[in-house]
Amino acid sequence: MSIFKELGLSQAIVDSLIELGYEQPTEIQKLAIPQILGSKDDLKAFAQTGTGKTAAFSLPILEQIDTSNKNTQAIILSPTRELAIQIAKNVNEFSKNINSLKTIAVYGGANIEEQIRPLKRGVHIVVGTPGRTLDLIKRRVLNLESIQWLVLDEADEMLNMGFKEELDKILESTPKTKQTLLFSATFPREVEAIARNYMNKPIEMSAGQKNVGADSVEHEFFQVTDRNRYPALKRIADVNPDIYSIVFCRTRRETKEIAEKLIDDGYSADALHGDLSQAQRDLVMQKFRTKHLQILVATDVAARGLDVNDLTHVINYKLPDQTENYTHRSGRTGRAGKKGISVAIITSKERNKLKPIERKIQKQFVQKQVPNGKEICEVQLYKLIDKIHDIEVNEKDIKDYLPDIYEKLHELDREELIKKFVSIEFNQFLSYYKDARDLNNSDAPNDRRRSGDESLTRFYINQGKMDNLTPARLIGFINECLRKRDVEIGQIEILKSFSFFEIDKNFSPDVLEKMNGADFNDRSVIVEVTSKPKGGGGGRRRSSDKGGFGRKDSKFKKNDDYKPRRKSPAESGGRRKRR
Ligand code: AMP
Q1: Is 393 in the same domain as 353?
Q2: Which residue(s) pair with 501 in the sheet?
Q3: In the structure, what pLDDT confidence band is assigned to residue 576 with cuts at 50, 70 and 90?
């Protein structure tokens, strides 16, 4: 007999589970299903996302719904539209063999009339976000007076998202006789308060320990300097060519910026954040779910309710402020029995954020080294070889071209041919990672190389504070002239009428060629290579790190009267115009 049947579920439901490929109940399902079927007691369940909690609460409810009664009998509240849609979809799949059982998802950002119509016809189970649910109650189209089950799914998230007032009002409109089922991954004070105020001596159950991360998730961290966060992210992606990942950022701005950079750099990536319209968000999520995107850069709020099971990595581009959010983020990988990796990219200063997280997840982070260029090239090379090995040749269509192709390549022997074919794609990685720096940062901030760093060239530029030049504008201007982001930039000195900046010496010819003669504030720009100040200190930055100041060199701060070294016109690209 099916184990689900032993838990008390009918054949109609068991059949739908077989179709969905559910062979064994998950831990929370084993505990919750018989409990909800056999008792009217309220239930407080600790369950992480991805543990199968949707089936845990919806299967026993489905089992008990009276389809001959048109009243709404169960309301499931969820924090986001996406999660509400997902739950309703699951409920529909579970109940496909139950005649005339009606379920609807109601959520904001969608036409309310289209939700009102089916509600008026009669719906047994309503899955809703708190805001829209309350709206429908106020319009008197959703009547919760005869509900028997109230589910609060991801209660902590609903409160995090500021739905306390809506929840209070919805809960007040429900009958005392109902059974309340509260599911939460964490139990902060606010959730306990809801349980205290609205539940009657709830039974407590826990699938796994409270607030503990899933066992199937490994937690790793990479320690880099702040300006190496993005290059480290790229290397993590490059060394995992089959990566399927959500990269969590802390702000919408950062989310957009990182996604744009990844897209510019040729990754299959997109952003998901609150500034997108619902239609745009749906499109991005659809592309990600169907694996047309490998990397989704998202804020915590936007990624909620995104139900994807086989993420290879969750990447914390920056760790969240609240430790609990880390559990939510990492809980998105290692789901449905699969292994997952949760990565944190941190600076040495952020290292103290790991301890509280380790206490919460009851696991240790393992420090990993950002891969070097050689390691990445190796992985990419073997990936390419596998691709060539496994590619299916379309004999029929290629046949007509082959004689000409053989003719053109007949001078090349086997070894040369292989080398050339492989190089078509591989050269790009080789040239990018040739001379790639070590991005790892031990506790000493060793990446903040000083002026005098041999890999940087120092330039004079005939623009200063009088020209409204700021470090951010200078970086922007360098980007614009070089048509490149991510060029290593060292110290920047903005003085009254001229300034200095340091830049990766590999780009020196480009700087001279492309910046000289360019217009900045209607003045023709002159840049010249200049000598480095003695003992001056300055951090490195990337040309994409707009804003922020490099360390000032006191020598030049005091003396705003620097005269550039004279150079040949060819070297300097022109003479300095004095105003
Ligand atoms: P949930 O925690 O409800 O979001 O479920 C996480 C994922 O696990 C969903 O994609 C479910 O379809 C899947 N799932 C839930 N229960 C089972 C089960 N007993 N067997 C296999 N997959 C399951």
Answers
A1: no
A2: 459, 492
A3: very low
Q: Give 44 Cα–ligand 1 centroid separation in angstroms.
A: 19
The CATH number linked to 81 is 3.40.50.300
By the 8 A CB rule, do 88 and 105 touch?
Answer: yes
Distance 56 CA to ligand 1 centre (A): 9
Inside any domain, residue 151: yes
- 12 and 120 together in one domain: yes
Distance separating alpha carbons of residues 80 and 86, to the nearest angstrom: 10
Q: Which atom of ligand 1 is nearest to the CA of 49?
A: 2
CA of 322 to the centre of ligand 1 (A): 27
Same domain for 408 and 501, yes or no, is no
Same domain, 278 and 311: yes
pTM above 0.90, yes or no: no
The 8-class DSSP code of residue 533 comes to P
Residue ranges around ligand 1 (CB below 6 Å) = 22, 24-26, 29, 49-55, 307, 309, 335-336
Residue 556 has pLDDT above 50, yes or no: no
Same-domain check for residues 483 and 363 = no
CA of 324 to the centre of ligand 1 (A): 22
Residue 305 reports pLDDT greater than 80 = no
Range of the domain at 545: 452-572
Atom of ligand 1 nearest to the CA of 56: 3
Beta-strand pair 179-184/43-46: parallel
Q: Do 367 and 380 have their domain in common?
A: no
Whether the per-residue pLDDT at 211 is higher than 60: the answer is no
Query: Residue 566 gets which letter from DSSP?
Result: P
